[in-house]
Amino acid sequence: MLFVADAGNTQIALGVYEGSELRTHWRLATDRERTADEYGALCRQLFAASTVAVDSVHAAILSSVVPPLTPTLSDMIESVFGVRPIHVEPGIRTGMPILYENPQEVGADRIVNAVAGFARTHCATIVVDFGTATTFDVISARGEYVGGTIAPGPGISSEALFARAARLPRVEIRRPPQVIGRNTVHSLQSGLYFGYRSLVEGMVRRLRAEMDPGTKVIATGGLCEVVAGGLECVDIIDPLLTLEGLRMLHEKNSA
After folding, report:
1. What is the pTM of this model?
2. Active-site residue identified among 6, 37, 109, 238
3. CA distance 185 to 11
4. Measuring CA to CA, which residue among 59, 127, 57, 61 is closest to residue 88?
5. Are residues 187 and 138 in the same domain?
6. What φ, ψ does residue 21 adopt, rounded to 5°?
7. Which of 85, 167, 183, 210 is most solvent-facing, going by the fewest CB within 10 Å?
8. Is residue 98 in a domain?
9. Dihedrals phi, psi of 130, to nearest 5 degrees
């Protein structure tokens, strides 16, 4: 079986594949202070509570946008599974031309999403990832990574607001009863929820204007179902797209 791991600034997504089937998956809070031993103990606990045995894993792949955490997770994978993971980094075979001015500036997770997104649609595609940042990655109809945009994510935007406005309470990011808030909680939820839905609609419209009007849109990331659910401009919602991209990249590089 294949162990896949994607380390973001807020969460770490983990999964186990048997062939092309995702057998199980988890999300952990990113903690830069944890050691490889601590992550290893946590990983073993997750496996113990699942139907997958640790010793059934014989290969691994890791993508990370948190440089201090990359060697920690790599050491954890070697310790727990006894395998050296493939790293998503410059030089890895993706099968996708990168048209960015400096390809090394593109985050590993964005490349992984682009590969999985194009494989899903086989046409011009925009992948919207609701992570610490909200990223829009654009893939041409020829399967080229064209570029994209980066905006603050809903989570860090709300944290900045609560930190700077002492009288505003912390609220869950969820759909309020209506757009016009009749109390402070609903007013905040309306701005966060409908504001980010409007951001997605506006950015997709502008990106499609520079691409093909028939470009497909895939939403992924931890908040994709909350924020993008029901949006007419979004064709596919897949919170596990990044894990599938890691599986595909392992397949391309395992030889």
Report:
1. 0.91
2. 109
3. 26
4. 61
5. yes
6. -95, 125
7. 167
8. no
9. -90, 85
